[in-house]
Amino acid sequence: MTDRPPVRVAVLDGPDVRLHQLELPDRPPGQTDVAVTLAAICGSDVHTVQGDRPAPPLAALGHEAVGRVAAADPDATDLRGAPLRPGDRVALSMINSCGRCDRCTHGLSMKCRSLFKYGHASASEPPYASGMLAELVRVLPGTPVLVIPDDVPDALVVSAGCAVATAVAALSVAAVGPGDEVVVTGAGAVGFYCAAMLATAGATVTVHDPSPQRRELVAQLGVRTEACAPEPRSRAGDGPAVVVEASGHPDAVTGALGCVGVGGHVVAAGSVSPGSTSITIDPALLVTSRIRLTGVHNYTADEFARGVDWLLEHRDALPVDRLTAPPVPLAAVAGAIAAVPTASHLRLTVRP
Ligand SMILES: [Zn+2]
Ligand SMILES: [Zn+2]
């Protein structure tokens, strides 16, 4: 331990979210300290706090953030080999994979056998400062980090490491081309970014979400919206080529399978809380209509980088002020997490 002042990090302590004064040991070689300038609260943080997903004691919360390098090795680089120097602004990934195991070497780095996820580990175990709802996050070697220009607003890139990269991953499996008809169910952050990316790729997108506020936000992208669930495929088997299920509602997965056209592809990216729900599927639906169903969870380093590039390329077209609420101080993090389910913005944010 050193005589540095403690770092304030948001933790889940029993059922309560509180700020923890973390006495951080010296930075081990290879690790990079990033001072968080803006962090966002993801729905997964809410699930963790509500006990819907397992969490270790003193779980360090938060996995969407942007910040500035506070300390790094002299030869540290970002994902593309650019030097990482103190003061550099960086977009952060939430996942760290080993790059060597059988899954990492077979295109499944997002399911690495020793996968580490920020915002899901204990603040009492290395690297300790592993949550991003914090003043500082300690980034492990191999975690995708990208230097971003100084003029990019924090709010534009704050969700790069979860919602944006997950949207890239969801669309990567579906091979959507210009003019393809695509349905997105759920207009939370992942659904919003899927719709936005599909629109910029020239697809014909319809987003289904019961929330008028979310529909209005998506409509700003020039995308069609519907309040109701998608119509079942026609008697002739016609329907959208791709359905991206981003709501996480089990009924929406069944609905997607019943709506996608013959030969179509359902990408399920919303259901991340294991065991809480179940659905009944008629396998003949998949078989006789030649439907593919692909689950997508997490993303690769390349998908993270493509997400950051897409954000920078489309920064002027995105309604960032409507996506992210004005930040609250870190001391108000517990109230902000509690306010997520009724928030009018897709992301509530915290500025440490
Ligand atoms: Zn998330
Ligand atoms: Zn691995």
Brief synopsis:
The chain has 352 residues and is of the alpha/beta class.
Topology, please?
Blueprint: E1 7-13, E2 16-22, E3 32-41, H1 43-50, E4 59-60, E5 64-71, E6 89-92, E7 95-96, E8 116-117, E9 136-139, E10 145-147, H2 154-157, H3 160-172, E11 181-185, H4 189-200, E12 204-208, H5 212-219, E13 224-226, E14 242-245, H6 250-259, E15 265-268, H7 283-288, E16 292-295, H8 301-313, H9 320-323, E17 328-329, H10 333-339, E18 348-351
Parallel strand pairs: 11-12, 11-14, 12-13, 14-15, 15-16, 17-18
Antiparallel strand pairs: 1-2, 1-4, 3-5, 3-9, 3-18, 5-6, 6-10, 7-8
Helix pairs in contact: 3-4, 3-8
Bound molecules: zinc ion (ZN) (2 copies).
Structural summary, described in words:
The protein has 352 residues and is an alpha/beta fold. The chain has two domains: 7-159 and 320-351, Quinone Oxidoreductase, Chain A, domain 1 (Alpha-Beta Complex), CATH 3.90.180.10; 174-295, 3-Layer(aba) Sandwich (Rossmann fold), CATH 3.40.50.720. It is 24% helix and 23% strand. The strands form four sheets. Strands 3, 5, 6, 9, 10, 17 and 18 form a seven-stranded mixed sheet that branches. A six-stranded parallel sheet has the order 13-12-11-14-15-16, with helices on both faces. Helix 7 (283-288) links the parallel strand 15 and strand 16. Helix 3 (160-172) packs across helix 8. It is globular. One zinc ion (ZN) binds at residues 42, 44, 63-64, 162.
List keywords for this structure.
2 domains; 10 helices; 18 strands; seven-stranded mixed beta sheet; globular; Quinone Oxidoreductase, Chain A, domain 1; alpha/beta; Rossmann fold; 23% strand; binds zinc ion; single chain; six-stranded parallel beta sheet; 352 residues; 24% helix
